[in-house]
Amino acid sequence: MSTARAAATFEPVGRSVAAARTFVRDTLQGWGYPEATDDAVVLTSELVTNAIIHAGTAVDVLCVRMADAVRVEVADRHAERELPLHSPAQQPTPLDREGGRGLMLCAALASRWGVDYTAEHKCVWFQLNVAEPAAGTRAAGPELPVDELPLADERIRVAVVRIDRGGLVSEWNDDARDLFGYEPEKVIGKPLGDLAAWPHTPGTGTGLVEALQLSRWEGSYGIRCNDGRVTPVYASHMRMRSTSGDPSTICLMVRDRERAVLQSPLRASGGDTSGGEGRTGAFPGGDSFEAFIGTPSPDDLDGLLQRTVERARDMLAGDAAYLLLATDDETELEVRASTGLPSARQRFARVPVETGTGRYGSARLPAVHEDLMADPDAVPLLAATGMRSVVSVPLKVEGRLTGSLGVAAEMPGRYTNEEALRLQFAADRIALAVESARLGELERLRRGSLSFLVEASDLLAGTLDRDQTLALMAQMIVPTLASWCAVYTLPEQAEPELSYVLHEDEDRIDDLRALLSRIDPPDAVLVPGARLWRGPGDAAHTLAMRSSFLSLSIVGNPTVAEDAETSLATAATVGGETVVLPLVARNRVIGMLVLGKPADEHFRQEILELAEDLSRRAALALDNARLYSERTTISQSLQRSLLPPGLPDVPGVEVEVIYRPAGEGNEVGGDFYDLFEIRDGTYGFAIGDVCGTGPEAAAVTGLARTALRLLAREGFGGPAVLERLNAAILDEGARGRFLTLLYGELWPQPDGSAVLKTVCAGHPPPLRLRPDGTVEQATESQPLLGVLDDLELHSEELVLDPGDVLLCVTDGVTERREGTRMLGDEGLVDVLTTCTGLTAGAVAARVLRTVERFAAEPASDDMAILTMRVPAQLNGNGAS
Question: Against a cut of 0.85, is the pTM above it?
Answer without folding.
Answer: no
